[in-house]
Amino acid sequence: MKIKHIQRKKTPFLQRIYLPYIFAGMARTLKHFLQNASDTSKIEFLEYPEQKPQDITKRYRGLHRLTKNEQGELKCVACDMCATACPADCIFITAKELENSKEKAPLTFSIDLLECVYCGLCVEACPKDAIRMDTGIFTKVGNSRESFLIDIKTLSERKEGEF
Predict the structure, then answer these.
(1) Distance between CA atoms of 56 and 22, rounded to whole angstroms?
(2) Which Pfam family name is an example for this entry (predicted)?
(3) Are 161 and 135 in contact (CB under 8 A)?
(4) Alpha-carbon separation of residue 116 from 88, 89, 135, 150 (angstroms)
(5) Which residues fall in the annotated binding site for [4Fe-4S] cluster?
(6) How far is Cα 140 from Cα 147, in angstroms, rounded to an integer?
(7) Per CATH, is 65-157 categorized as 3.40.50.970?
(8) Is the Cα dihedral 33, 37, 38, 43 positive or negative?
């Protein structure tokens, strides 16, 4: 069996310590800083939340909502398909059986927005089209971790394009 040995070329010392690249990056940053400091009229900014972004497409995935049927009841049948499809394991559902029926409904339905990666797999997995991400709300601000746990009441009160 023939084995071919390849000699690696030794990289120069300056390339090994990355100093030229660090200085080049710092020089570029300083150049942009000085340009923006001398002429602030060219800086684009948005005074959020007073001004809303205009470049958000209709297909953008915003915060979640639960849909209702014509009778005003939640379409969710607590099948747990959305929680199963979720790669972040951020959806938590507890089911209850409905009276005089074989069907189930969610007793609790919560989403941890700090864990959610907004992939939309929960929407695709739902057989009843009960969960959607079309609220138009794309930012959530809170002061504590608990404020990012969205419960069934909040999810069912949201409307499409509520932005």
Answers:
(1) 35
(2) Fer4_7
(3) yes
(4) 6, 8, 16, 11
(5) 76, 79, 82, 86, 116, 119, 122, 126
(6) 9
(7) no
(8) positive
State mean pLDDT over 66-87. Answer: 94
Distance from C-alpha of 44 to C-alpha of 95, rounded to nearest angstrom: 49
- Digit-coded pLDDT (tens) for 42-62: 888 888 778 877 887 778 888
Binding residues: 76, 79, 82, 86, 116, 119, 122, 126
Return the pLDDT at 130. Answer: 95
Q: Quote the CA–CA distance of 136 and 160 in Å, as a whole number.
A: 7
159 closest CA partner among 138, 142, 136: 136
Token output for 98: 């409905």
Q: Return d(Cα 5, Cα 151) in angstroms, integer.
A: 62
CA distance 32 to 121: 40
In Å, what is the CA distance from 88 to each residue of 98, 117, 121, 139, 158?
A: 29, 7, 10, 19, 23
Which amino acid appears at position 105 of this protein? A
The whole-angstrom distance between residue 75's C-alpha and the CA centroid of its chain comes to 23
Q: Provide the CA 41 distance to its chain's centre, in angstroms.
A: 32
